[in-house]
Structure prediction request, 370 residues.
Amino acid sequence: MEPKTEAELAEALKSANGPLRISGGGTRDYGRPVQGEVISTSKLSGITLYEPGALTIVAQAGTPVSEIEAELAKNNQRLAFEPMDHRAILGQEGSPTIGGVIAANVSGPRRISVGAARDFLLGVRFVDGEGKIIKNGGRVMKNVTGYDLVKLMAGSFGTLGILTEVSLKVMPADETAATLILNGLDVEQAVAAMSSALGSPYDVTGAAHIPASGHTVVRIEGFEKSVAYRTEKLTQHLSAIGTAEIISGDAHDLLWQDVRDAKALSGAEGDIWRVSVKPSDGPAVIQAVNPTSYLMDWGGGLIWMETPSGTDVRALIPDIAGHSTLIKASPAIRSEIATFQPEPKPLALISNELRSKFDPRGILNPGLMS
Prediction:
């Protein structure tokens, strides 16, 4: 099913007799397989409001992210939370949509400095499991009202309702940027370097460790003179750990696209996991799991790793607080290992109650979150 309007989507949900598998651009299909008819938001596309002076944009859920980014670039603006493109690691085609970004709360390297996708979400329109059209929040920053269903929808993976429209705060793009590269650090040294950079007064907007290249990278963005000054000072600050190489321009941009999209794991033959922990626990995770390959982002707090097929990462790090998500695996492995970190019983009770309120028939991506 490919409804062209919100009203058509509502009618489709009202008349649905069985489970529905929700799809946007089809590029983030990493949850437990959902049995049921596919219902796509790809025809619900287009930017419906853009006010550069108010730093807000409103778009239908099926709008390609590339279309939104191109429109923002005309006014030197951007989605500050730097949404990841999962196609490289999942081997999928299609075009990522803004509805998929918000439904999965997808955030990139700049998450550590500006916040997650949900922090830029001003308002939503969605259709719940009974076919009711629900509107929450506002279309511009001064108009955010009502109960905060906006934050609830971000990261709900379509289990509470199907997004039809999102309102987002956007930010000006930076004048320039530079990256400091430290070479040859082991995981403990890398986390120490990233933590030192993030704890410095030099306003770091990205910190990652890329074992495949031997690079530990730190990003600085802003006005040209400010970037030059902070880059020099941060180089001095990190000199006890190593001598930093500095890059900018196209090489800088490509490096951070690769970090954002976890390109180091593209073509992985094993399972792919996404592990979120305290940065200081990152080295212990690597030691316990011993992954085939890995990449660290968010100063060491986000770890993308490839493991041999069937490895239960959660069982290897039971005493380390955090969240482990199985991003890519065979259907057989997915039937044995839950995609998402199991919730504590009190939280699971709340989650189940919320789903029963918004989707009493249990037809929206059933079983996805288990």
Observations:
- The chain has a mean pLDDT of 92.
- The two ends are 25 Å apart (CA to CA).
